[in-house]
From TrEMBL:
Residue ranges occupied by any Lactate/malate dehydrogenase C-terminal domain in the UniProt entry: 157-326
Domain of life: Eukaryota
Any one Gene Ontology BP term: tricarboxylic acid cycle
Entry-linked Gene3D superfamilies: Lactate dehydrogenase/glycoside hydrolase, family 4, C-terminal, NAD(P)-binding Rossmann-like Domain
SUPFAM superfamilies: LDH C-terminal domain-like, NAD(P)-binding Rossmann-fold domains
Family assignment from sequence similarity: Belongs to the LDH/MDH superfamily. MDH type 2 family.
Organism: Cardamine amara subsp. amara
Protein name per the record: Malate dehydrogenase
EC number(s) from the headed UniProt entry: 1.1.1.37
Reaction catalyzed: (S)-malate + NAD(+) = oxaloacetate + NADH + H(+)
Binding site for substrate: 93, 99, 132, 163
Catalytic EC class: oxidoreductase
A GO molecular-function descriptor: L-malate dehydrogenase (NAD+) activity
Amino acid sequence: MAKEPVRVLVTGAAGQIGYALVPMIARGIMLGADQPVILHMLDIPPAAEALNGVKMELIDAAFPLLKGVVATTDAVEGCTGVNVAVMVGGFPRKEGMERKDVMSKNVSIYKSQAAALEKHAAPNCKVLVVANPANTNALILKEFAPSIPEKNITCLTRLDHNRALGQISERLSVPVSDVKNVIIWGNHSSTQYPDVNHAKVQTSSGEKPVRELVKNDEWLNGEFITTVQQRGAAIIKARKLSSALSAASSACDHIRDWVLGTPEGTFVSMGVYSDGSYNVPSGLIYSFPVTCRNGEWSIVQGLPIDEVSRKKMDLTAEELKEEKDLAYSCLS
């Protein structure tokens, strides 16, 4: 039996992440090679012509799994009936802008998009926020879409997770598919904590801890962490544009694992609504290690946390509390 198509919304679809993401979704990279999709692409009115160009290209690519395309600047039309929503659209920080100005713009965007999803999305719609500040944008969306279960609202830290896997893979000259269980704790910002204390590498003699194989704590506790934290800035410096291909690919990874499940013995990083696990304050969208089964994520429990990790985890939680306060001050 052919599967019913899944409706996937991409906001900011005419932008460069959107342009990298929509063909991946249409090819089955996000939801599987046997899952038909209907793409809903939403963008702002000034981008309408470019958005139509993307629609033309999707038609021209003749993707077998793509059963329909909605390209619109109307949030209601964009959100109607969607099962998965990938929120890429946001207001980027421009030179000379204060954090509060950027936050204020994004608060108003996410407040209005939350209202449209709340009223028009399919029941049990899964939401992934990509646009920065991703954790806090997701929190605002949660506040203004109370009928969407809080466990269905997440933000993207899989890009940071994949960057961490990539750095270990390069350092050890092993395939990235042999590295697993790095963790990104906290905010998708330069305060995030990339943690390798639980990470493993598949070797010819079984799984070995990353620390044991790297044999260089100075690098793991220093340059490795800063490289992952600042990788986005390094890519902007090199490309003169922000990371799009890797962001789109990790958004697919995030949704695919959430919907189809994580492999046995493997955990991934997702920004989710904190329940107080690991003494992280509840009421924040914070990146945790999770496993996924049957379309639900669960925080991995009981991992030992050393003193150095604790400090870094608390530091990024502090920043998230400040962002939350700033966002709420924009609302009043």
